[in-house]
Amino acid sequence: MNVIVLIVVGGLTGWLTGKAVEVEGRITVVKESHVIDAVYGIIGALVGDYLFFWMVIGKGNAFSSYATAILGSITLVGVARLLAARWHRVRS
Q: Number of structural domains, the chain?
């Protein structure tokens, strides 16, 4: 899949994931913005596509590439949020 499409899909998915799991007082607890979520989403999409390539030994169809980009993006945003929240609790 084209890298530009991965960046767009990852950024959009990361931003939407950040909006979906947004809680009251998130900025004071996690201190991350939706722009950071979009960056995490882009990195997650690129990593997801790369890992899928090596797990399947080659490229799949377009749907599988989009799906792995979305799943990688959601996973990385979720992990980053979890780690940031735990780090804040430890420091408090």
A: 1
